């Protein structure tokens, strides 16, 4: 209990230190209600406001309830056995109460391997990564230096300010606003995937719990780097392709998720981060797993700024594949358009063009789109797209095994894995020789043994070098000097 209270106090302090909290001001304004609102009329108004706030709290809880239900019937039966319902409570109420406590209090087997309030003790190096209407995201290091991202209620956000203005209840408003965090945490539990940010734990306030106010919630996530499209546009095609491939793998999962077909309603690059180069969805509070109802095809129109698409209304009265199609087209307009075509390898451009056409016109479903991306990856990793490069291209080079170079005269190429020189990924020495022959400045290249995420080799190209040095993992290829041709006899 002592550890929990210490962590609770620390979390409260962290929120206050990151933002100038509205809590103190609100308590000063409304904490002395007995003196300021002594007349019966005002007391009655405050009671009505509290009842209205309670109604909203119940509505938010109903929204989250479907996410609390176990996915399969066996698991649901197990939960019901554990809680041993009383005769006067119906099944849904008991299930709701049990799983709700598991979320809000961190109890239950689903949380035993996750971080809790005790993990937030001695949090250091807090830094605000971003904030919005509802949440603030804080970069922090736990004991031992483990980096995490903490999502907290934004005490100065629009949602909190508007609620306090309407209902005059900072504590109740914090609880109301925190429902978005609760919902996002539940979605992260249900939608576990390599391209979804990892939920590492959470710390939740307990109403009346030793002075730590209800509604204080911290969701603990793995820390990622916000996706910067401008920087991404300057990276090699291979890295840009990886981002698009990760996105398609994510969308395929969302189309067949445990919750059904999930649509990303706020589909923007800012909703994503990268962790060790891997794309991950980090913001799940604006997603939908509901099928849009319809009477006719005209009710199933997807509207975008410059295009509209009409989908089929199924015999069941729902728009067939609407969430999936929306996700695909948003991926096309926000990601594929900027990242895929530019500087695609010549042997793959026709396949990239096919993807651009099929996704831009919504001619392919997510299964077909993923298959097309995986096919490109297979060709790119295997080098099959380089079948027109003749092996004789290496005859113009002398290779020196287990050597590297020193005193290089570098030149720059774009895009490169190094800002100081020309470092590109290649499938083999044959592809590196082809690239070197296409660069007028290039006279040698070195295969260092380092590899990219796809398993391709990194090759460093240079105009010249000072001398060779022994290196067990490298190979140096030097262009053979051209033999001067004798002048034609007269």
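-> sequence recovered:
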């Amino acid at each position: 209990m002592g550890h929990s209270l210490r962590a609770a106090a620390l979390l409260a302090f962290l929120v206050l230190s990151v933002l100038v909290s509205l809590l103190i001001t609100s308590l000063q304004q409304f904490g002395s209600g007995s003196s300021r609102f002594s007349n019966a009329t005002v007391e009655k108004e405050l009671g009505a406001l509290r009842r209205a706030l309670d109604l909203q709290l119940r509505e938010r809880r109903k929204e989250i309830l479907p996410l609390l239900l176990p996915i399969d019937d066996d698991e649901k039966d197990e939960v019901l056995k554990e809680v041993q319902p009383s005769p006067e409570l119906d099944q849904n109420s008991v299930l709701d109460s049990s799983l709700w406590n598991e979320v809000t209090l961190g109890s239950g087997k689903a949380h035993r391997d996750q971080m809790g309030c005790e993990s937030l003790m001695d949090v250091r190096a807090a830094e605000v990564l971003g904030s919005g209407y509802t949440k603030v995201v804080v970069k922090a290091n736990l004991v031992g230096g483990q980096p995490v991202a903490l999502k907290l209620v934004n005490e100065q956000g629009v949602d909190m300010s508007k609620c306090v203005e309407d209902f005059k209840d900072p504590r109740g408003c914090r609880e109301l606003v925190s429902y978005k965090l609760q919902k996002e945490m539940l979605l992260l539990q249900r939608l576990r995937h390599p391209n979804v940010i990892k939920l590492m734990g959470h710390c939740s306030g307990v109403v009346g719990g030793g002075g730590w106010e209800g509604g204080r919630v911290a969701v603990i996530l793995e820390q990622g780097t916000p996706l910067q499209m401008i920087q991404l546009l300057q990276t090699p095609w291979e890295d840009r392709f990886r981002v698009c491939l990760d996105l398609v793998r994510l969308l395929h999962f969302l189309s067949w998720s445990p919750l059904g077909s999930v649509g990303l309603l706020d589909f923007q690059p800012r909703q994503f981060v990268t962790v060790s180069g891997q794309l991950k969805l980090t913001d799940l509070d604006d997603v939908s797993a509901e099928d849009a109802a319809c009477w006719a095809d005209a009710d199933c129109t997807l509207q975008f700024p410059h295009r509209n698409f009409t989908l089929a209304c199924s015999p069941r009265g729902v728009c067939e594949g609407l969430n999936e199609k929306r996700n695909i087209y948003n991926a096309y307009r926000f990601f594929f358009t900027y990242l895929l075509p530019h500087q695609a390898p010549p042997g793959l451009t026709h396949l990239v063009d096919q993807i651009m056409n099929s996704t831009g016109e919504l001619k392919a479903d997510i299964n077909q789109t993923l298959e097309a991306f995986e096919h490109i990856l297979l060709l790119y990793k295997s080098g099959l797209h380089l079948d027109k490069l003749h092996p004789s291209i290496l005859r113009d080079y002398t290779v020196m095994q287990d050597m590297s170079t020193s005193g290089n005269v570098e030149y720059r190429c774009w895009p490169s894995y190094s800002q100081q020189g020309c470092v590109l990924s290649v499938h083999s020495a044959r592809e590196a020789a082809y690239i070197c022959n296409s660069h007028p400045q290039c006279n040698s290249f070195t295969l260092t043994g380092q590899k990219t995420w796809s398993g391709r080799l990194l090759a460093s190209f240079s105009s010249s070098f000072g001398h060779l040095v022994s290196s067990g993992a490298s190979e140096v290829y030097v262009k053979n000097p051209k033999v001067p041709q004798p002048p034609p006899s007269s």
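Residues 301 and 310 are 4 Å apart (CA to CA).
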